[in-house]
Design goal:
Keywords: Phosphoprotein. This is Response regulator receiver protein. By secondary structure, the protein is an alpha/beta fold. The protein contains 5 helices and 5 strands. About 40% of the residues lie in helices and about 20% in strands. α2 runs parallel beside α3 (about 65-75).
Length: about 140
């Protein structure tokens, strides 16, 4: 299983990486621009991500724009809706406009408000149909 964490906050990236590491390979990106590039490269290489966690407020390209670009790349590369990457938007904002934009404009799969809690994140991932088995080292 392959994960991508996109967050400009070091502590948030480290926490999510620590939570997901036992279940597979984890890439990190520090802003939306890096995240979109990592996504594009993984898809082109035939090694797509199973899940992306995407912070909303970031420099360069914010999470909302990054998500729209990711969905556009999927369309360009012929990825069907059922095979689209699962994306959990993560934000310190419990804001109905951000929530609306994430789901309806960016086709987010889920939304979590910080602070990130291990069990909440793992439960959210499994509710998306992703089976989390301990990775074999």
């Amino acid at each position: 299983m392959k994960f991508l964490i996109v967050d400009d906050d070091f502590d948030s990236r480290r926490l999510v990486q620590k939570i997901l590491h036992p279940f597979g390979y984890v890439d990190v990106a520090t802003d939306g621009e890096e995240g979109v590039e990592a996504f594009r490269t993984a898809l082109k290489d035939g090694e797509p991500y199973s899940l992306i966690t995407l912070d909303i407020l970031m420099p360069n390209i914010d999470g909302q724009q990054a998500l729209r670009e990711i969905r556009e790349i999927e369309k360009e590369m012929g990825v069907s809706a059922e095979n689209a990457v699962k994306v959990i938007m993560i934000s310190g904002l419990d804001d109905s406009k951000e929530l609306h934009d994430a789901f309806f404009l960016g086709e987010a799969t889920s939304y979590i408000v910080k602070p990130i809690r291990r069990q909440l994140l793992l439960d959210e991932i499994t509710s998306l149909g992703i089976e989390l088995d301990q990775a074999v080292a």
